[in-house]
Structures are given as C-alpha cells and as structure tokens.
Amino acid sequence: MLKIKNLTKVYDDGTVALKDVSFEVPDGEFVAVIGLSGSGKSTLLRCINRLIEPTSGEIWWNDVQLSHISGEELRRARRQIGMIFQHFNLVDRSTVLTNVLSGRLGYVNPLASILGRFPEEDMQRARASLARVGIPDKADNRADELSGGQRQRVGIARALMQEPEMILADEPVASLDPALAHSIMRHLQQINQEDNITVLCSLHFLDLVQQYSTRAIALNEGKLVFDGAPHEIDDAKFIEIYGREAERIG
Amino acid sequence: MSDKKKNGRPRHWWKTAVIIFVIFLLYAYGLQVTKVNLEEPLEPKRQENLVSLIRSLARPHLFDYETETRSTAVSIHMPCPEDIKASQVSIEGRSALMVPNCATTTQDRISITGDGFLPNADGLIGWRPPGADSTRRIGEFKVGPDGHLEITFTMPDIRATAEPQKLELVEIVNRRIIGLSDTTMEALDKIVETVLMALMASTIGTLISIPLSFIAARNLMQNVKAPISGIMSGVILAPIIGGLGWWLASGIVGPVLSENSTALASLQAGLSPLGFVGNFIFVIIELIILTLPLVFGLIGAFTALSVGGRFGQRMTMNLADAPNRALNIVTTVLGTAVLFIILAYSLTWINLLGIREFMPETTQAQLSMFTVPGLALGIIAGLLTLRRPARHHYPIGLLIYNITRNTFNALRSIEPLMMGFVFVVWVGLGPFAGILALTLHSVADLGKLFSEEVENIDEGPVEAVTATGANQVQSIVYAVVPQITPHYIAYIFYRWDINVRMSTIIGFVGGGGIGFVLNRTINLTAYSQASVMVIAIAVIVTVLDNISSQIRSRII
Question: Is residue A130 within 8 angstroms of chain B, CB to CB?
Fold first, then answer.
C-alpha cells in the first residue's frame, strides 16, 4: 500500500514541480500517471523512491515513511520498488546479464558484488528473468547491441530481479514504436496480474491508459487534477488535464 | 538613424582607426621589449657559427667507421730558403705540386694542385711537427670528379728545422660502417631508461589519480551532504585516529616488516641471476615500509571522517531541536579549533611569508599559542550554525570537490621542470627524481582529465542502479566504471606519451633519462652527439604517439 500525503517538490531554481499531491495506491493496482510534459510525472515517481528529495509531505510505503529514512533503511526500501525508464538506462558497455544482475545489488554481499561475484541462484534468476521477457538468448550480448524494444525488456528483467512489490515505470514506451509499446505494456500487465506487483506507470497516450491501467491519476502543473477510472476521462476532464489547445487523438 | 540601419555600415570608422593604432603601438612596444634584432644574425661571424652548428647537427655520430686511406707525402721547408721553389711528387699515378714548398710565417699562403687522385674522394692534409708523435690536421680537401685536386692553406704554426718537413695528403679511399657508435649505444640505453621512467610515472600516477578522480567529479560529490555535527566530529576524530594509525605503522608494523625484509635480502641474493627481480621485490617491500605510516594515517583519518559523519547523522536524526543545536555548537567549536591549529601549525612549519620569526620555537609552545585564537574562531563558527536549521545538511561534498579540483589545477600549472628540480634536491640526481616529478604532474593532469570523464557520463544508469537499492560504491562500480574505463585507458596511454616527451626536458635539471645526456653533450659542444639524442627522442616520440593514437582509436 502506497500512501502519498501533501507531497510538494520545489527545485533549487524555484520551479514548483509538485504541489500538495495526495493519493493512495492499494496493492496490485495498475495506475497510470498522465499529464503534459513538465507536469511533474517524473518528479512524482522519483520522489517515491527518493531519487529526488521531496521538499515536504509524506510518503508511506507499507507503514514505513519513505521520506524520513536514509542509509541502509532507504536501500532496503528501494530494493522492494523496481523502476524502469524511458531511455532504459542500461549500462551500454556491460553485458545484458550484468545489467540484469545489477537489479540484485540491494540483496547481495556488497564486497562480493564489487568483485563481480553473484550467488549461483541469482545467476539462474537472471536467466529466468530474461526468459520471462522473451530474450533468453541475449544474456551474453553487450547491451548496446540490442534494439530499443529488447533494451526495455532488459530494463524490466532488471526490475524483476529485485522481486519488487511495486514497479515505477517512467514513460516506459515513449521511445518505442506503437507495436513495441503494446508488447512492453503487455509485459507490465502480465507482471501486474500474475505476480500481483503494483504498477505506477506514466504514459502519454490515452488509448494505452484505457487499455492497460485499472486507474488513472492526472497532474497538471504539479497539481493532482484527476483520480479515477480511466474510462471516466471524458472531453471535459481531458481539457482540464491537457489544457484547451490539446486535441484528442486515438 | 534609418539610413544607417539601411546600409548596415557602422559609422564609427574612428573606432576602427583607434583600434588599429592601439594594435600598432602594442606590436611596436612588443618588438622593443622582445629585443628583436635583425643586425646580429646578419653578421658574418654569427652566420659562420650557425652554419658550423647546423653542419654538426646534420652529421649525427650514429656509427663508427673504418676508413681505408692512402697518403702522399710532400716536402716543406721551414723557414724558406733564399731561393724559393716548388715541390713536386709523383707516386703510383698520383702527382702533386706544392707552390711554394716553404713557409716562414703563418700568413704565407701555400697551394697544392694534384692529379690522378681517386675521383670524389674526401681527404685531409696532415702535418707532423718536428718531434711530435701524431699528425696535425691543417686542412681538408675534396677531389674533383676528374681526379683533380686544388687546395690553398696556411700553416697554423712554424717550427723551423734544417731538414725539410713532411705534409701528408691523406685521401679516404674507402669508408665502411663497422658498428654503432658509443653515442648511439648510450642513446639507446637512455631511451629505454626514459621510456621506463615515463611508464613508471604514468602507472603510479594512474593508480593515485583514479580514486582522486571520483572525489574531483562534481556529479558524484554534489549530493554528498552532512549535518554540521557529523562533519565536525569527523574533523575532531581525524587527527586522533590518523595519528594512532601513523603510530601503529611506524612503531609496530614497520619494524616487524623490516626485520623480515632482511630475510628477503638473502632471497634476493639467491635470485642473483634474476637480480633485478629480487631487487624489485625488495624495493616494493621497502616502499611499503616507507609509506605505511602515511597509508595507515590516511586510512585512520578517513575512517574517523566516516565514523564521525555517521555519528552526526544518527544524532541529528534522533535528537530534538535544542540538544541538536547544542551538539552542533560544541562540535563546531572544537572542530574549527582543530582545523585552525592544524592549518596554523602547517603554515608555520613551511614558514609562509617568514612567519616563523614571530613564533615560539618549540612545537608545544606553538600549539598552545594557537589554541586561544582557534577556540575564538570556533565560537564564532559555532554561533553561525544557529543561522541554519538544526538539521541542515551542509554540502561538504562540493567543498571537497572544489578543494581537490583546485589543487589539481594548481599542480598542473607548475612546470614539471620545477618539480624535477625540487625532487633532485630531495632524492639526488637521476631518473628516480624524474619519476617522482612526472608522477606528481601526472596525478594532477590525469586526476583532472579522469574526473571530467566521470562528469560526462550518462547519469541514467547511475539512477537506475541506485534505484535497485545499491549503495554508493556498488553504483559506481556497476554504472560509472563501465562507462569511463575505455576513456581512462586512452588517457593512460596518452599520458605515457606525454611523460616520454616531458622526461626529455626533466633530464636538463638532472632528472635522468635521455635529456640528461642531451644536456651534457650540448654543454660539451659535442653537437654531432647531441644530434643523435635529438634523433632518438624524435623517433621514440613519433613511435609512441602512433602507438597511443592507434590504441585510443581502437578502444573508444
């Protein structure tokens, strides 16, 4: 269960990225986060796992207040929360297997991992994760040899290595073509339904939102302007979220 | 107004004129200051010197030759008899005529013409003064393509004898290379020394600069923040634990190691056929013993900083506002005092601006003198902490980043020649001083280049790895290191290349390597030997430059 109360983020240059945002996400939901570019979607996702320090407000994750922990506690919380990114954020020069194994860093012995050693069961888990996302034969390729869709699958496999209870997906399909976008979204949906992993996913296209998510929240200039079922977004709500000049497509 | 804008031509032609005039003045003054002088180089004497220098340089003493010669002797009278004649000889198809065949003063011009000599051969005229063991060279000649020879000369000195003396026309019939000259062998020897010097300096420099490059990278350091109580507890503990480490290393571990290293000396003797391997092990152990106090001290200090930081962090998180502020003030007062005392003591020690004259002589008296102003400063700093919230995290990372970066920049700007000079004073003449100077310069240079490479990485993977719950070291190893490795390797080779070039200069102040020999040969005006050194440097620099650029293009 994720609970966000009055979350505000003001950047050092004075930009208000999030203004008093509050919502709750029960376990197992697939929540789409929508809004224009710059509306605060990425900041919201990154505040949850503290890649960005919130300015004020509370973030509760299973009775732990994420905004007040640091060090070992924070790392323990982070490893339960997987994250995938628009630009995949793989280490290009490392192998796919190493990239996937890096998802396990929060669990293994730090010294052994620095020397590049992982337990045998983690190696098997990594290969199983790759098989699950459909690229079992790419383990030994360098990450930059893969196509965009394959790279995002590696990103998902890396997140799965964390055995997460929640996955934060920051525009996971924005750099992919529509066919690949659907395939990646189906993987996320499958993970959400089979493993009961909560998914919090920022998206640009409403058809993807309506097809895959069970709930949608919308941000406009850092404020929460919508929280409800995806099909409730009618024309009036649409204008409220995207502004008057936006035109509905798809 | 509109006219001006229309044709777009600036009306301020006089500004242009002023600028041109100023530039003219600048160059005129520059010419005077730099003492550009066009008359001196046109003087015949100077030109002659230049030609002879260039000719020596153009004839590097690369090889030893064996020459086959044939000589033809002509008689000469000193002084001239009453009745002046010419001498003529004719042997084995050669004929030579000397007019006149005598000399009374050193100004008398004598000319020799000959025929039937080996076409195009080089040769010289030698004179054996009365009673001398060897001949003196008094002139050179070159035989024409038709075997004809013409030469005019004067005698360098006159030693009168009753009997006629001999001049020899020595023509070089054949010239063969019989091997590399001693100069070439020395050049090869010193080039190897130079390349190895550069290799050692690059290697040690790399090892030191890699860890430093991480703390000189803005993107890694800007998020390192700590509460003031943490920073100051670290500062207070650092000299204590660091000093403990130093004492442990120099008092206990060091002596034990050096006892056992005498046992290793016998091992070294056993390895005599591979003497340099035994020596290598021996030197490494000595080096460890030598640097152990420093290493232990630094480890102690860093442990103290980390422990202090954690303590402060924990206290800040758990204490209420008021006790937190009290802790901040106490630690800041003590920490600032410690910093002040260390700084003041170090400055006194190096005698900055002659400060020692005003200080008491004993360390103890100095320390007690610094305590009061240290505490006073500490109280001011302590009160200043009240201006910030009790839990304020200060950007200590940025401070460390700035100090490291600026130290790199300052060190880089000091000429390696100057560093070489300092190290020659410390460790004596020879390549070791050169290695130390180059190492220091390499650390600063590579540290800056490396840290810029760290700053240029793609932050995405770091973000991703951090999000998995990895700690800072893990995320550096998994997300930063793979991105920077090829650039680091490229820079290491580049630096090796630079160090070879620099070590030729460092030799001039006694830092060993080929520069040392180059300096010596120039001072002895042995230009044809100096020329060999210059060629050797040019060859090795070109070769290494090619190798390093090949490797770089292949890696990146």
Answer: no
